[in-house]
Design brief:
The chain has 10 helices and 13 strands. Helix 7 runs antiparallel to helix 8. It folds into 2 domains: about 220 residues, no CATH class; about 50 residues, no CATH class. The N and C termini lie far apart (about 75 Å). The chain is elongated. The chain is of the alpha+beta class.
Amino acid sequence: MTRQEKTSIRNHSAPQVTLDRTCISATGSDRTVFRDQPGHRVIRSHFLRYGAYRRVLETENIGTGARTLFYDMPRVPWVPKVKIVLRAGDSQGLGSSDLLGASELLGKSRVSLLELAFDFPVEAGLNTRFVLEHVIFGKSRWTARKVGIVWFGTRRSSKFVRIYQKRTIGVFRIELEFHSSWLRQHGIRDCFDFARIPDLVMRRHIFFCQLDWAAVIRDIRRSVPNARLALRNLEWERSNLHATLRFLRRELHLANTHRFLVPLALNDLASRALKLWAAQWPRRPFSLPLKRQTR
């Protein structure tokens, strides 16, 4: 990393964490109540030729731009009777009113997908090169890279990560998409469980760090037979932290490679931003107080 890039990272700003997308699986519901929601307009409502569901209804919140996709009439028996997909608009993420409003119109339901977006401002100086050199996403491995976007994990794994520049709002975005297996494992059923997410996610599924190259070189010279060749081959992986750790584990057979990782200050900023997001969600079901009737 150049001196200019180090300066830009040092003068970073805190990210903003939002809920960008979520799926809710339910035992049943009436699509007409979603179609006739106040403050929403219908985008499309038709039958589908392919896929797990036969029908889809898409509506848009006129105020926030958030969209709701209502899938029903399943073709296969292993999918839920009804699936709701909530997508945030560009101006703001999904809030408690979006999820609670949808849940109230459903039968027995649970969250089956959760997509958290960490939006870093331009002042943070983050880019895909910085992510490859300084960010670990738990056990998720680098899978693909195109111009301006990087993927970690797969859509069939418990977590899928996307990194890209979201030019429409001028931020650099890191998206963590948690699937139903991860949500079930940690008991995340609805928005009342979101308060536990910061402790489950930070450092376990997103960790900003840098490699202590001095410690790596000392360990290689001490324990690897052909240290000079190993260090020469390691130079090829220097710009990719994931590839470097994989080389240390698989080729050089070094144990506990995470001992070479030094945390960055970005962890504290991201942790505070995630806790602020979690604090916006209710921790228990509640009902609106009834107005007293005047005689």
